[in-house]
Amino acid sequence: MSDMQRTPRQEMIEIIARIAGVDGDHPTIVPGLSVHRHSSSAKPNCAAYKPSLAIIVQGAKRVLLGGELFVYGASDYLLTSIDLPVLSQISLASSEEPYLSMNFQIDTAKIPGLLDRVGDQTARSPASPRGMTVNKLTAELEDAALRLLRLLERPAEMPVLLPLIEQEILYRLLMGPHGARLRQMTTAESQPHQIGRAVAWLKEHYSRPLRIDDLASRVSMSVSSLHHHFKAITAMSPLQYQKQLRLQEARRLMLEERLDAGDAGHQVGYDSQSQFSREYARHFGEPPMRDIGRVRRSLVDLLTGEPELLSEG
């Protein structure tokens, strides 16, 4: 197909397919940018989403945040403005038309400087209180994302063009329907910024017993305000958020460090083995060792071309 006939999305498909020649998650030479390819749908799997822009160019995906389901596919983008533990599932993929996506992490430290130049152009109130949203991909954002992907095949241009493209992507997101959420997450003393501080503390101290009044005091909020705004942004309570962090870390410890269920549960803060097993099974659908056995078998499947593990992009 000639360049005159290709759409931007078709060019994005071609670039990602070349860079991600086999199924899996592929970091790239562009800092913060990864590309993802999967040739089959799979069971839901846990993931930890960071502030990022995720664009699917082919296929579709479901992401469960708390009790809220986000579904997005080609021509959509997923904007995550705060660290969130989720369940995700690639729902549309085949060997003929594999799932292809890109994920670009947002450096939130760069937003305040850009806001100084943007001024009051961004909306004051976000379209949704959530720290995760699905939106239609605009032509302007798609064009910037395509130019970012092109740098993968033009590395000599990266030192000059990457900062400009990254700034444009941040600008397009800030000017989009949920740009106000990004603004608020980086504005000191705003309630979303305070929730960001609470999330950071929970991520660092997830294994400790959680006292909500202590957490509220740490981020200079009342208990009722913390509960209200935390749930509005993350779709879960602080205790539910902590539980998901614990369970995901326990799963990682069993998979990567080969701890048994008892040791993993204790290390992430569970005093009761039966409570750990019960909550693990409720979250992942199976008791710990049965789930870990399935995931390990899926790693073998991954090597033989039949993956079950899921991408984060």
UniProtKB/TrEMBL annotation:
It comes from the Bacteria. Signal peptide: none annotated. It holds the Pfam family AraC_N. Keywords: Transcription, Transcription regulation. InterPro entries: Homeodomain-like_sf (IPR009057), HTH_AraC (IPR018060), Tscrpt_reg_HTH_AraC_N (IPR009594). GO terms for molecular function: DNA-binding transcription factor activity; sequence-specific DNA binding. This is HTH-type transcriptional regulator YqhC. It comes from Sinorhizobium americanum. The lineage of its organism: Bacteria, Pseudomonadati, Pseudomonadota, Alphaproteobacteria, Hyphomicrobiales.
